[in-house]
Amino acid sequence: MAIKIIMLVIFFAIMIIVGIYTRKHATSVGDFVLGGRTVGPWLTAFAYGTTYFSAVVFVGYAGQFGWKYGLSATWIGIGNAILGSLLAWLVLGRRTRIMTHHLKSTTMPDFFGSRYDSRALRIATALITFIFLIPYTASVYNGLSRLFGMAFDIPYEICIIAMAVLTGVYVVLGGYMATAINDFVQGIIMLAGIVAVVTAVLNENGGFMSAVGKLAQFSSDAAPTLGQAGAFTSFFGPDPVNLLGVIVLTSLGTWGLPQMIHKFYAIKDERSIKAGTVISTVFALVIAGGCYFMGGFARLYGHMVMIKEDGSIVYDTIVPNMLSSLSDALIGIVVVLVLSASMSTLASLVMTSSSTLTLDLIKGNIVKEIGEKKQLLIIRILIVFFIILSVVIAFNPPTFIAQLMGISWGALAGSFLAPFIYGLYWKRTSKAAVWASFAIGVGITLSNMFLKYIASPINAGALAMIAGLIVVPVVSLISPGMKKEMVKDIFKCYDEHSAK
């Protein structure tokens, strides 16, 4: 217990020191929300990665999908690295930075409002962002609740309050720059931690070959494998179709999430984007690949898994139980690892929510004229509000992490992904097409919550994204486009940068 507490105290002390140090860099709205658009490749890449991967991935997804798909769950981590990081940076990084800088956009709603010349779209984007980031916050805390229950004898509520207070302190003090620097520190912890934990799990089962041999003895009840043994060690696993749905949502979904895209707004220059692409991809490959690879051995711990009265498995208990037999030092590393991932994600979520509400809803709508100092004050107050709200949710968190994640990512990425990508590349994209994408993303997510015509909310989210990518160009071709002069002015930024 002393080892775990010492690790936590050192970790929290670093977070606070960074917040105090970066306070001088948060004197304007642009500095507070975007770090003055001067953030380098290492900080941006780690901020992207640590926001991407939280307790949801480490505790929720790794356990659930490792149990369902065995070692083939590692494909999810590889997909996250290639589709969610490498391609996202290549396709979105440069164009996002250039166009948002040209339009002077600081948030996702701000971008939609300026790119499509629509105040209504800006408000709608802000509302969708605010509403569907809440279940994501709940899913982050739910993962922590399972882990703290395994590692500590002190009440989980005290841990949550401590985490929330410390996150609030450094975000309120230093804004985006404090978040980015702390994300870098937390990312280093995550890299070291996942290597240590994967090594420990393999050693506990006699090494890699021995662990694979044990896993090969299990048979799967998934239809494609017909109950044959060895499915959990096969190349594509027992259920490749549903595995593909998970890869699509967890990888392509990042392309439309406001808290992820925001990282491209703040990066310093185009050279930083090239370096950040490589760093972010390697980070994702180690963290996500390591998490899902470790989860792939979940069946070896089947005797420790919690089962409900109806016979269903409580997936969120799998990873904590896998790690419960590790040494105190390793458990301490795991706690700091997951805490790092979760605090970075929480910081990004509350920053996105508070800046969106202030700049895209309150400013110009509820309050017509609002000075810069007052905007900063409101953003900071809303950060505190969202952290308190997240604590309230955390005290009684919903039970199924992956469902919450699927609902949040499905609605956000299903709504924003297609119009954002087409908006960066295609001049013909219309306002009507953006509204159609919003209707599809929110419509599929909400209707499936109640009607459950798609068994998995993850597959529903993947469907919403793919549908948006098809509907946006179709609706754009049959609906009125924007004024040619305005579109020409928006896209001239790319020509100007290419000429430099």
What layout of secondary structure does this protein have?
Elements: H1 2-21, H2 29-34, H3 41-52, H4 55-69, H5 74-103, H6 108-115, H7 119-151, H8 156-204, H9 208-215, H10 240-252, H11 258-266, H12 270-295, H13 318-323, H14 328-362, H15 372-395, H16 401-425, H17 431-451, H18 457-478, H19 484-499
Helix pairs in contact: 1-8, 1-14, 3-8, 3-11, 3-12, 3-14, 4-7, 4-12, 4-14, 5-10, 5-11, 5-12, 5-19, 6-7, 7-14, 7-15, 7-16, 8-12, 8-14, 8-15, 10-18, 14-15, 16-17, 16-18, 17-18
Description:
This protein is mainly alpha-helical. The chain has a single domain (2-398), classed as Up-down Bundle (Sodium/glucose cotransporter). It is built from 19 helices and no strands. The chain has helices at residues 2-21, 29-34, 41-52, 55-69, 74-103, 108-115, 119-151, 156-204, 208-215, 240-252, 258-266, 270-295, 318-323, 328-362, 372-395, 401-425, 431-451, 457-478, 484-499. The longest helix is centred in the middle third of the chain and has 49 residues, at 156-204.
Please trace the helix and strand order, writing H or E for each element: HHHHHHHHHHHHHHHHHHH
What is the tally of beta strands? 0
| Helix proportion | over 70%
Number of helices: 19
Given helix and strand content, the structural type is mainly alpha
Largest sheet: none
- Number of domain units: 1
